[in-house]
Amino acid sequence: GEEGDGVQWTFDSRHRVQTGEGVGEVKEEGGEEGDEIGGKKPEEEGALTEPINPIEADTGCGDLPEGLEMCLKLMLPGEVSRVRCAPRYAYATRNDAPPGIEPTSAVEFEVELFHFDREGHWQTMSFNQRFQMAERIKAKANDLFRAKKFGFSKARYARLIKLLNSTRDFESDEQLARMNALKVACSANLAACAIESKEYTEAVAWCDQVLETDPENIKASLRKGKALSLKGDYEEAVRALEKVTELAQGVIEAERKVEDAAEVVLRNLGVRARNEAKYMERQAREVERQTRRERRAAKVQRRRLREAG
């Protein structure tokens, strides 16, 4: 802080410049939590002073430096705060430091929170609202995994499983099956996150959970084999991968059966089409013969009328 402002700055501290009001918006369908913020670097030697355009970010996804996100969680819409972050809470572990800021530097932000959206309460949502929210959380976790933000991805998958486990008021077996399918997918993806984080024992545990529910899940068996191999349990890894081979062979056989069945159907359709074509041809010939008979009968009738006249 500047001299004389009555604030003694220490690393990881926050100073409220302007008080905010309100509690944010709650989306009826239960949208992802997000913050729209703006701000500027403090006016000091070597710092940038241009206002930063408002940005929108999801919390818990690594979009912002950790210290800045911690500050935002304590703010209300309209509030302006200054937060000083030690390097480890700023850019020391990130690769997106703005030009002119060293990753090893402490950083002071001035940030204004314009508004934020909060998720609706899971237990008060309808099934469709819950399912839509679950799909959004899973999609975000998938994006984080593809971006190699495995810790943040893991947190999203784990949070979704916790929400799914808290659900008891299913109205049909179909609803239960849809939620269980999501849980299986998230558990398998948590195994992938654990493998990337070199937490192989945890990865095996997640795979076992999936296989307990879905013993023929190829993805879980494959990831279990990979985790066991990286862990050094080669005999167990071989057994898991043999299971993958067995399941894959079963899929191939199933595909062959489908192809054979399709071929039989097409062959039967071909026979049926040929039979129908022959039938239509016979019908056409019969119509033609009937037409000729009617013409002959009409000709005979006209001749008799002339003779009678």
Automatic annotation (TrEMBL):
Domain PPIase FKBP-type: 4-117
Top-level class of the enzyme under EC nomenclature: isomerase
Top-level taxonomic group: Eukaryota
Record flagged with keyword Repeat: yes
Entry EC number(s): 5.2.1.8
Pfam families referenced in this protein's UniProt entry, alphabetically: FKBP_C, TPR_19
Region (Disordered): 1-48, 284-309
Keywords: Isomerase, Repeat, Rotamase, TPR repeat
Protein name as annotated: peptidylprolyl isomerase
An MF annotation (GO) of this entry: peptidyl-prolyl cis-trans isomerase activity
Basic residues composition-biased segments: 292-309
Catalytic reaction list: [protein]-peptidylproline (omega=180) = [protein]-peptidylproline (omega=0)
Organism: Polytomella parva
InterPro entries linked to this entry: FKBP4/5/8-like (IPR050754), PPIase_dom_sf (IPR046357), PPIase_FKBP_dom (IPR001179), TPR-like_helical_dom_sf (IPR011990), TPR_rpt (IPR019734)
